[in-house]
Amino acid sequence: MPVRSAQAVWKGTLKEGQGHLKLESGVYEGPYTWASRFADGSGTNPEELVGAAHAGCYAMFLSALLTNHNTPPEELKATAKVHLGEGPTISKIELHLEAKVPGISAEKFQELAQEAKAKCPISKALAAVPEISLEARLI
After folding, report:
1. What is the pLDDT confidence band of residue 33, given thresholds at 50, 70 and 90?
2. Structural domain tally of the chain?
3. Highest mean pLDDT: which of 8-12, 36-40, 130-134?
4. Predicted pLDDT of residue 6
5. What is the CATH number of the domain that holds 93?
6. Same domain for 72 and 121
7. Which of 30, 40, 33 minimizes the C-alpha distance to 18?
8. Exposed/middle/buried for residue 25 (C-beta within 10 Å: 0-12, 13-18, 19+)
9. What domain range includes position 59?
10. Planar angle of CA 79, 84, 90, nearest 5 degrees
């Protein structure tokens, strides 16, 4: 299996400094600052990137489960809302999913959606997060 990497460079103090993030693949490179993380500044932040990773991993894992159940999805639209609390610490992640999956019962869909939440590699990596909720619905 491949090893993936990303790079962060931070210069200066926490509040006045600034950083730069770069993905190994080259598809994203950009700034982050105290304001982009803790206020409404421009740029990205680690929690946003965690959310993208979680939503992407979850959707791919669920697609595999649905396909193995002979009900491949037409579309899975996953969103992850990452809550940064005191400490700071990630206190909660809310996964939201809208799915177009022909031929599946609502019960089986919910079962597979929960299984994907529990078993996708990013969910496993985030096991220290006190709460990861899921709202999954067929559309």
Report:
1. very high
2. 2
3. 8-12
4. 96
5. 3.30.300.20
6. yes
7. 33
8. exposed
9. 46-138
10. 85
Say whether pTM exceeds 0.70: yes
Q: Are residues 56 and 30 in the same domain?
A: no
Question: Whose structure tokens read 């709202």?
Answer: 135
The verdict on residue 79 lying in a domain is yes
Contact call for residues 34 and 44 (beta carbons, < 8 A): no
* Residue 88, CA distances (Å) to 4, 37, 77, 107 in order: 26, 11, 29, 37
Quick check: is 105 in a domain?
Answer: yes
In this prediction, residue 73 carries a pLDDT of 98
Give the model confidence (pLDDT) of 65-107 as tens digits: 999 999 999 999 999 999 999 999 999 999 999 999 999 999 9
* Residues 52 and 105 grouped into a single domain: yes
Phi, psi dihedral angles at 4 (to 5 degrees): -105, 155
85 shares a domain with 56: yes
Residue whose tokens read 């990773």: 53
- In the chain the beta strands, taken as DSSP E runs, fall at 6-11, 18-23, 29-33, 75-85, 89-100, 132-138
CA distance 53 to 4: 12
